[in-house]
Design a protein that fits this description.
With about 150 residues, this protein is of the alpha+beta class. It is about 20% helix and about 50% strand.
Length: about 150
C-alpha cells in the first residue's frame, strides 16, 4: 500500500508538470504565441514589433513603425546595435535601404520615406545565427532608443 501511495504522488506531480508545460506551450513560451510577441515604443515616435522567443536558424520578422515627425531630409536613419546584428543573418529589408553604414557599435540603415501623415513601416526579416539571449538597442538617428530583448532556443 505504501508503494501505491508513492506511485500516485509521483503520478500527480508528473501530470501537474505535463499540464504546466502544455499551458506554457499554448501561451507561446516556446515561440509563436501571446508570451512570445512583444511591442515596444510609442506611436508618437517609433514602435517595434518583434518575437521575444525564437528558434535558432528559424525565420523571424522585426517590424518598425516610424512616425513621420522623425524624418530628416526625407529619410529615416535606423540604427541597430552590433550586439543584435552580429547574432542574426538578415534575409531582407523592405523597403530596400538607400544606404548602410557601420559605426563602432552599431549598423545604420538609411531609408527614403515618402511625405505624409501615416507612419512608415520597415520590415526586417532575419534568422538568428546562434542561440541564447540577444539584447541591444534600436534607435532612429541615435535618438528614441528602444531595448530589444530576445531569447533564442537552440
Amino acid at each position: 500500500m505504501r508503494h501505491h501511495r508513492k506511485a500516485w504522488r509521483v503520478e500527480r506531480i508528473a501530470w501537474f508538470v505535463i499540464a504546466l508545460t502544455l499551458a506554457a506551450a499554448l501561451f507561446g513560451a516556446f515561440g509563436g504565441g501571446v508570451l512570445s510577441e512583444a511591442q515596444v515604443g510609442s506611436r508618437q515616435t517609433v514602435t517595434i514589433e518583434y518575437d521575444r522567443l525564437l528558434r535558432s536558424s528559424a525565420p523571424s520578422l522585426m517590424r518598425f513603425h516610424v512616425h513621420p515627425s522623425l524624418r530628416r531630409d526625407g529619410a529615416v536613419r535606423l540604427r541597430i546595435d552590433r550586439s543584435i546584428v552580429s547574432r542574426m543573418e538578415i534575409e531582407s529589408i523592405v523597403p530596400q535601404p538607400l544606404s548602410q553604414a557601420s559605426g563602432a557599435d552599431y549598423t545604420e540603415f538609411v531609408f527614403d520615406v515618402a511625405p505624409g501623415e501615416s507612419p512608415a513601416t520597415i520590415d526586417l526579416r532575419y534568422r538568428p545565427s546562434t542561440f541564447g539571449r540577444m539584447r541591444g538597442e534600436v534607435s532612429i538617428a541615435g535618438e528614441h532608443a528602444l531595448v530589444i530583448d530576445q531569447f533564442v532556443y537552440p
